[in-house]
Amino acid sequence: xxxxxxxxxxxxxxxxxxxxxxxxxxxxxxxxxxxxxxxxxxxxxxxxxxxxxxxxxxxxxxxxxxxxxxxxxxxxxxxxxxxxxxxxxxxxxxxxxxxxxxxxxxxxxxxxxxxxxxxxxxxxxxxxxxxxxxxxxxxxxxxxxxxxxxxxxxxxxxxxxxxxxxxxxxxxxxxxxxxxxxxxxxxxxxxxxxxxxxxxxxxxxxxxxxxxxxxxxxxxxxxxxxxxxxxxxxxxxxxxxxxxxxxxxxxxxxxxxxxxxxxxxxxxxxxxxxxxxxxxxxxxxxxxxxxxxxxxxxxxxxxxxxxxxxxxxxxxxxxxxxxxxxxxxxxxxxxxxxxxxxxxxxxxxxxxxxxxxxxxxxxxxxxxxxxxxxxxxxxxxxxxxxxxx
Length: 389
Fold this sequence. Notes:
The protein is α/β, with parallel strands linked by helices. The protein has helices spanning 40-50, 66-72, 88-101, 120-129, 174-182, 193-199, 219-222, 226-229, 271-283, 289-292, 306-318, 341-352, 370-373, and strands at 11-17, 34-35, 38-39, 56-61, 79-83, 107-112, 135-141, 146-150, 153-158, 164-166, 170-173, 205-208, 232-245, 250-252, 255-257, 262-264, 322-331, 359-364, 377-388. It contains 13 helices and 19 strands.
């Protein structure tokens, strides 16, 4: 039982991805069809997970599609899965009940996985709107001439200045939306949650929509022009060296390793993550680690190097890119890397938001030659391959 005095998380997001995708004709539920190299559902999941003002993310899937969902979202963390119902409103209701069971929320954003290209700006507009309103939806003006059809013939021309296209995500006061769903007539179809919310006597404000929030429904929607669908495959390389010194901690691949010496540097001196950061930034054409985290800046003294990797990942995503795989080599005589290699791969896969089979960590020596051969330091190389528009 949640203590009523405990403040509720401010904003939850719920993605509806429980459809069968029969109209798409793709042979697979459309939420798992590839768009720009990723399953469609993954695009909006990544966007909500990366937004700082979304406290919890829920993904509603169809019974029997759980494995497909987890595979599509492999490497991502921080979301909960809910089994949907026979209709869209049943699926949303199941998601709302799941949120309520964990203590509820102040606001909830309801989004369709079929609108994959969600922006932070769109989320921000909706969050700002509920500072004053109890609900808001994004809308765009009708562009084409719109008519009624009677008996197969053109009838009245409608005033398109009064017609608007409705999109998702839509944001609502959580308690009021849950109540509205619980009192919605059984078996009655609703095209969106705003319809259900208004039927309960509430007002719904509007905000500017986004043309990028196109809804993918049929096979033709997925057949994008080649110039829009093509992704560049880019490769970046990174190399770093740090000196071994007594009295320092040894961090490699985000893992603290027991050893009589550690690596010396301005941050935690994780030579492997530094090489990886440079490889990622290089692939995206964004300079190197020193450009973004200069060693002269005292704020990075002793900093955990996973922050550098996470920054590189975030800027790649902001540029519309995704990480395909990374391959890294640690060069040292000691300590032995093999006993720690799997844990390093797991750490790095979580940092990058990709599956562990997309992460390779190897180790080699220089046969006692050079500074690494003499045990004076450790070097690391990294190669990152990304897809980018």
